[in-house]
Amino acid sequence: LRTGIAEVLRADLPIVRTASPGGRPLIYLDSAATTLTPEPVIAAIAGYYREVSASVHRGKHMLSDIASTRFEQVRAETATELGAAAREIAFVPNTTAALNVVASGLRLRPDDVVLVPLDVHHSNLLPWRRTARVRHIRLNDDATVDLDHYGELLRGGPKVVAVSHCSNVTGRYAPVREMARMAHEAGALFVLDAAQSVPHGEIRLAETGADYAAFSAHKMLGPTGIGVLYGRLDELDPLLTGGGTVDWVDLDGARLRDEPHHLEAGTPHIAGVYGLGATLDYLRGLGWREVAAHDRELAAELYRWIEQRPHLAPLGGTGADGRAAIASLRLPARVDADEVARLLSDSYSVMCRSGKLCAQPLIDTIGDGRPVLRVSAYLYTTPDELRTAFEALDEVLSMVGVPVG
Ligand code: PMP
């Protein structure tokens, strides 16, 4: 494993030095929910409040100029990383907000059809249900998208196809370039939820062919409350209106600002944008290719530990190929995943997620409807931590009566 990356990163993570829940070292395996935050990102956020603390695009004074310049610089840097133009990048609170902006902004009619694979996150399902008719694309036995079924559904003339680039449950990547091409041939827009793929190095979103894509900084070492919406923003009606979205208002009406500003209503999370800028600098410093390669190695390591334990059934099957370092485990009958997560946390300082992972249609279909235990690693995870975590899981399972061999 390229532990070099983990070591560099761990030296920058205050929480692995200071947080010692229960007096044991923290083993954080809930990175698909939110990642740990390195010092340079914390410093950028604090630096905004310490040294600037003024609003953007509102005034003519020096501090507002400094904030506005940095804000637009981060937008330009984000665009460069994605292979896009700055006007194609809007800052939003998170992936969920971005997908709501797209779903509401496209002016869909109630009988328009939107296709989503069964593995989408609720954030890429419920916004579409609110505005259109949703049809689910089936999955194969290994939880990859059934492209034959997708092809069939495309013949029905959907307006939009909305896909998870990487599943937050199974860690499987979707063949998005091919899916985008098929959607476009059928006359549909292609929307990509990149919340789990960008963190693992898939940053060149403009090259996927997606018309729109969204991700959140907090899943890639960055702050909470700031995310990115990429795409043909000029074609979206704003979800929110108000200050910042217009350049002229009189007694009769208003004139919307050009994209992306018409989508950024109200005072934005400026500190968050500073933090996002530091996050991109940090990941660029590690190298996007290195980040992706490291994740593949981590996924192989993670699934190796799982495959040694036949009583753990990962959703989407075993094998790490085409997967991020995310695994959701169906535990043996009568074992409560929530209780296991609680015991791992309280007795071993191992932090894992349990539940239905905001993907209940998937869990209920390919799981058995019970909550699962999700183990998700990130750049700072070491092989030793995975070993310790799986040994802890063995102990917890044997405590609740599962023979773990
Ligand atoms: N999509 C996927 C695939 C996710 O994993 C998540 C976060 N769990 C989201 C969307 C939502 O992200 P956020 O909570 O940052 O809006």
TrEMBL record:
Co-factor requirement: pyridoxal 5'-phosphate
Residues in Aminotransferase class V domain copies: 27-386
Tell me the protein's name: Aminotransferase class V domain-containing protein
Keywords of the record, alphabetical order, are: Pyridoxal phosphate
Claim: Phosphoprotein is one of the keywords in the record: no
Species name:
Lentzea guizhouensis
